[in-house]
Amino acid sequence: MPKTIVILMIWLGLALATWGCKSSHEVDVKPVEIKPIHITIDINVKIDKALDDFFDDIDEIEDEIKVNE
Length: 69
Hints:
This protein is mainly alpha-helical and about 70 residues long. It has helices at about 5-20, 45-69. Helices cover about 60% and strands about 0% of the residues.
């Protein structure tokens, strides 16, 4: 076989080998929807209890004054 045919066959073999290694990727980017989060925290119970504890002494003194009158 002549040298040119051997070189041509090698190039053809390399071309076919690299042609099979081709890959393609497609990335689909969808829009991201961000929804607001609403959080309601009721802290009135803690405040009411703290105020009741704070004013209990005043209420007791007020009750004593009404009884003594």
